[in-house]
Amino acid sequence: MPRAVLFVGPSLARDELQNVLSCETEIRPPVRRGDLEEFGADTVVAIVDGVFMSTLAVSVREVLHLLQRGALVYGSSSMGALRAAELSTYGMKGVGWVYEMFQRGVIDSDAEVALLFDPTTLLALTEPLINIRYALQCAQAEGELEQLETERLLAIARDIHFSNLTYATLLRRASAFITTDALSRFERYVRENRASIDIKRLDALRLIGILNSGQPEHRVGLA
């Protein structure tokens, strides 16, 4: 069994991670520039989260060089999904809904997965746009929102900088444009379904399921 390394942070809380990860895996904080240099062909590298802005993000070239050294590299949820979409033709394996959205070109900005998190606890302090996008899609599919309400709420969310984006901020900003009834329905839907609409968390769990399987090379994408 090759060495397995998982870079994960705010997409999946550490207490939950310990409960769901059943294989021997080295857990590291969100990946940053230079973190991949030590790995080679004997390693499965799974990237969920990564840093950017004040700290240099892991580059496409770094991941490409890791692939060329023979490592098996997976990405999901956040930075991992973004890099996997960029490098799928070079052998990086993308996992989950967020990856599929990047791969198909439905979204093309790293701002979709950006958020603020506590550097000590690694807990999220804001809500990534991709989670809100997914929550709105689910709420509409379940009849809690009309299509126009969904589109308007997504447009408002996109206008909020990631460092300020939360559900509370979105609802407050939207109160001038969306009916109180629609906002109440969406607020209730989010409150009652928080775990099942956190798509970054769900995609991280899919990736962990692949690691737990012991045969990661045979399971890619949304399987």
CATH class of the largest domain: Alpha Beta
Query: How are the strands of the biggest sheet laid out side by side?
Result: 2-1-3-4-5
User: How many alpha or pi helices?
Assistant: 9
Average the pLDDT over all residues and give the rounded result.
Answer: 93
Shape: elongated
- How many structural domains? 2
Query: Major beta sheet, specifics?
Result: 5 strands, parallel
N-to-C series of helices and strands? EHEEHEHEHHHHHH
At the fold tier of CATH, the topology name of the largest domain is Rossmann fold
Architecture (CATH level 2) name of the largest domain: 3-Layer(aba) Sandwich
Helix content: 40-55%
Structural class: alpha/beta
Counting DSSP E segments of at least 2 residues, the number of strands comes to: 5
Q: N-to-C terminal Cα separation, in Å?
A: 22 Å
Write a structural description:
With 223 residues, the chain is of the alpha/beta class. The protein has two domains: 3-113 and 202-218, Rossmann fold, CATH 3.40.50; 129-197. It has helices spanning 14-20, 60-68, 79-87, 97-103, 129-141, 147-158, 167-174, 180-192, 199-213, and strands spanning 3-7, 26-28, 43-47, 72-76, 93-95. Strand 3, helix 2 (60-68) and strand 4 form a beta-alpha-beta unit. It contains nine helices and five strands. Helices cover 42% and strands 9% of the residues. The longest helix is centred in the C-terminal third of the chain and has 15 residues, at 199-213. Strands 2-1-3-4-5 form a five-stranded parallel beta sheet, sandwiched between helices. The chain is elongated.
